[in-house]
Amino acid sequence: MITGTRIIEQTQSAYSYPLLIKQLLHTPIVYAPDQEIIHRDTKRFTYRELYRRISRLGSGLLKMGAKPGDIVAFLDWDSYRYLEAYFAIPGIGAVLHTVNVRLSPDQVQFTMNHAQDAVVFVHQDFVQLAETIRGQLPSVKKWILIREPGAPEPQTTLTFDAEYEDVLAQGDPDYVFPDFDENSQATLSYTTGTTGDPKGVYFSHRQLVLHTFGMALGVSTMEAQGRFRSNDVYMPLTPMFHVHAWGIPYLATLMGVKQVYPGRYEPEMILKLVASQGVTFSHCVPTILHMLLSSPMASKVDMSKWKVIIGGASLPRGLAKASLDLGIDVYAAYGMSETCPLLTVANLKPDKMDADLDYQLDVRTMTGLPCPMVDLKVMDPEMKPVPADGKTAGEICVRSPWLTQGYFKSPEKSEELWRGGYLHTGDVAVQNAEGYVRITDRLKDVIKTGGEWISSLELESLISRHPEVSEVAVIGVPDEKWGERPLAMVVPKKGRDLNPDSVIQFLNKFVADGTIPKWAVPEKVLLADELPKTSVGKLDKRRIRSVV
Length: 548
Fold this sequence. Notes:
By secondary structure, the chain is of the alpha/beta class. Among the domains are: 46-198, ANL, N-terminal domain (Rossmann fold); 446-547, GMP Synthetase, Chain A, domain 3 (2-Layer Sandwich), CATH 3.30.300. The chain is 28% helix and 23% strand. A 7-stranded mixed beta sheet has the order 7-6-5-3-4-8-9. Helix 2 packs across helix 3. The radius of gyration is 24 Å and the shape is globular. It starts with 25 loop residues before the first helix and ends with a helix.
């Protein structure tokens, strides 16, 4: 006998509503059927047409022989086609593999073989890549070409089974996507770690739907800066192969907002779309925002209505201030490939919306507050929560209904990821009394000098405030006496003659006011024309270590 709980029996005629991705399409087709989807300056159509195109793509794939459970690979830039694939491929019970086209050919081949892709969509720009690896992909049965509107047929030795629009042409615009178990796998992507082979992370329909709702609560409904509203104009600047472009296209579609897709990332095209389409909401890694602000065209574009979420890496204070000075409502969010990805958002609390600039910069550049439905704890090595004093560091460990349940076909690494019943992020952080989390480093990037830990992220943020510094990376290098010492690699601003000693002198100001200890100041500052980046635009500290 169960006491204190009322058991409700479902009648045979009641509908048990599964949390499937297709359910996100009900609202926009009623709320905003005539709202537009725009691709660069080449294509525009309405949500009404989007709904029909998604139905055509799903049913067209079935006619071509795709089956529920098949892994369908997609190699494309950020586009309306990718948006359609987000819904259509999982909608028929297949699994969408968002291929990281910026990996090396060997790594792309590894991920596609590991996933055992059955169908592959290839944009014309990646035909040469496909030619290189096609002979080593035995599981692939169908190849489909994605050609830009009006573009000539690419010169290739490959034989394609169809083109993208051909698949839609044979599909049914009134196709009804089936019901099935909401825990069915919907997507698969691979991490971009700098060591070892990429690891597969996967998510179910249920997880993606709940992530969409959690995202809505975190960036739309809670009172704070930079809210994402139904009257916004949305343009993703995160690759759509990277954790569903952080899941925001799903939310944008649910809300029925005007969506603008930039295709290949070109600063002039992106800024042109911001101006011509009135873009008001985007998200990207810091290097993309830095690239845009450094473009000669930036001074010609009004950015005062643009809200930009920064993720994938720490938001440097210098970049945040430069953005705010241009009127960009910039702030940070945090997550990982393994977490779908959203965990925290650097929201100002309602009573601090009018706080001074220094306070706002402090908050906007933090890792942030845990989102609704995220159980986040900063834990010591024994998995005990550390004090929320803003000083005591520990590892961020999380639970949430949208975290990957493990690494694809890798039970041992999955066990390590979930040891103790929490997902271990590998990020070292502190949490203050207000609940704000600030990552101080990755476990693998913490600099250990003379028995003390130094945060490379904090040093990078401080150096970014130097008036002549454009970009910076800090790493630990071996030291016979202290174990490790920090080293800074700095890219000067264009046209500036940066003296490395001035960076050290600049940091000594923060030693004087107690922000950092004297042993945190690098003994060496190297100048560079550019910093090595990973395939998704993060600093590649492994490569930096290999060249210093």
